[in-house]
Amino acid sequence: MPSRAFNIANIQKYINENPQLTTIIVHCMMSQVRGPKFARIISEAVLGDNIETYILEGGFTQWMQLYGADKTRVDELTKEWRYMDREWVYQ
After folding, report:
1. Which of 24, 42, 60, 86 is 20 to 30 A off residue 13, Cα-Cα?
2. Of 53, 56, 52, which Cα lies nearest the Cα of 31?
3. CA dist., res. 29 & res. 88, Å (int)
């Protein structure tokens, strides 16, 4: 869910539409501000729903550096991500 659509009503709607949901992983580019903030909001919204909330350590940037070239984990990259100087960078 993009941050612009992020609110309690949308979170609860998503959870209601996906009853099999047991885990939510939140991230932003670095998982330093938005990711932790949204994880806290989600945790409060799903209190008592038996859903675990995690923050992707290092954010999407670190995840891309670790797994961006792995075709079994990445289906299709946007054109903004490039592999430069042995790391993934967002342009």
Report:
1. 60
2. 56
3. 12
